[in-house]
């Protein structure tokens, strides 16, 4: 578990490594049992059993859900595979029954809309203790990208207790950083001015929103913009991160761009890249991660499957083998920083529409379209239309660019999309037509949600 420093790379080990070693040593009273490979795994097994005991004792949902599970049968943390999964719909249907404390002990409730218009929202409950753990993770994890005394602009919601902005600010204040929690970006031009006035060293936000700021700041030629080399680091979070966005931000601000992986269910924080930027080191003292295949079996390192998470220290509403819906893999090689903590590769985009033998993937379109200079955001709508008796698929692209830089982008977007093999194949076969590409009049970022392909179905006669 202790890191092996690789001199040739000259990269400090992630600060999470030492923190997790200290945490596991302080909480786990016993010596590693024979057959368990590391102190961390012994600790994780110990905490898993504590979580299972708590959940069965206090939560009506888990009492029933974990019926028949014998803790003696769990001899290594890998035996977690004997336990049933928890799905998003369980959170929506039985959220309150999953609580292990009285509602009076809940310090924060987050309501999340699930997919589907009629689906009930998920509600995730946290105690004060759970929220303190989150801030502590942010203190340790952020040390990889900011130094004490630096100024951090957070483009995530705040300031209510337990919001991501508030928890990041609390975590960073422990490091002696000044933090301004702005909320999501609604107008890139005005946020660029705020960043310049605040003299931010670091920016934390959604990938597309931070890209819009970088491209807007470059387009603003006067003193209210962000000067070159002003920004020392960027952390992208809240959605999957296209490589094209990382490259574009690096090119404009000349700074390292880090990825954070996490969601409300992981207690906001989940994992963060170190200076080597080779995947997110996971918060393994609080969370046990698995990657599973479509049949629910754990996959080895390097194979892509669904990210599944078990909370090890959560007291309000523990999650046991929670299926996140995210797709990613654990990285196989040792991180150049030397840490043995598990690393999660970049999460893949979830938005995929299958047409015949082909997949139309938003993440592929993101890589192609965000490469185009002056692009800020776009929304793809796939329309299944019935013309006379025949079915046809039409692709509509509404896009946002830097003001006054719209010229020629329609054609470039069309060319970029046609270069994607699946789209080219469908177009060449006459199964897909790019129907319209147009600059949007709508206000930017009015809905800062996870990106997805919109789908519509129409039956009337249309002009193609
Ligand atoms: Zn590392």
Q: Supply the CATH architecture of the largest domain.
A: 3-Layer(aba) Sandwich
Give the CA-based shape.
globular
Query: Looking across the biggest beta sheet, what order are the strands in?
Result: 4-3-5-6-7-8-9-13
CATH class of the largest domain: Alpha Beta
CATH topology of the largest domain: Rossmann fold
Question: How much helix, percentage-wise, in residues?
Answer: 25-40%
List the ligand species.
Answer: zinc ion
What percentage of amino acids are in beta strands? 15-25%
Q: What is the CATH H-level superfamily of the largest domain?
A: ANL, N-terminal domain
The chain-level mean pLDDT equals 90
Instruction: Output the number of helix runs.
Output: 12
Computed over alpha carbons, the radius of gyration is 23 Å
The main sheet comes to: 8 strands, mixed
Secondary structure tally: strands: 19
| Domain tally | 3
Distance between the termini: 61 Å
Low-confidence stretches: 1-8
Structural class assignment: alpha/beta
Protein name: Coenzyme F390 synthetase-like protein
InterPro entries: AMP-dep_synth/lig_dom, ANL_N_sf
Organism: Desulforapulum autotrophicum (strain ATCC 43914 / DSM 3382 / VKM B-1955 / HRM2) (Desulfobacterium autotrophicum)
